[in-house]
Specification:
Blueprint: H1 3-10, H2 14-22, E1 29-30, E2 37-38, H3 41-55, H4 60-71, H5 82-106
Antiparallel strand pairs: 1-2
């Protein structure tokens, strides 16, 4: 698929796809007839992973490292997992925050909008 189609399928802009490609996070092949960048289903999966990690506050250097590990045939040494483990703790805290917000939103009584739910 071409850049625009990949961007639409991944819920990002074409410029985001171009940026991730320039950063080496996405690796398209070239159409020999016209030189267009073409992406496959794996690129869409990578794009979605990148987007989710970015939404959690993970920087592009860390994402590049995570994707590099994913591309390796053999598992990396334990020391390489340290930055990812630290991010994992951040993810857990973020998940707890989002779950608290979801519970608060679920507690809203739609039938009685005059009563504001507690933020505690």
């Amino acid at each position: 698929m071409r850049v625009t189609k990949l961007a639409r399928a991944g819920g990002v802009t074409a410029e985001t796809v171009h940026h991730y490609t320039r950063e080496g996070l996405l690796r398209p092949r070239r159409d020999p007839r016209n030189g267009y960048q073409l992406y496959d289903a794996e690129a869409l999966g990578r794009l979605r992973l990148i987007d989710r990690l970015r939404s959690l506050g993970v920087g592009l250097p860390e994402i590049k490292q995570i994707l590099s590990w994913a591309d390796q045939d053999s598992p990396p040494v334990v020391d390489r997992y340290t930055p990812l483990a630290e991010q994992g703790r951040h993810f857990c805290l973020r998940i707890q925050e989002l779950q608290a917000i979801a519970r608060w939103l679920d507690s809203i009584d739609h039938d009685n909008a005059s009563e504001a739910p507690s933020l505690r």
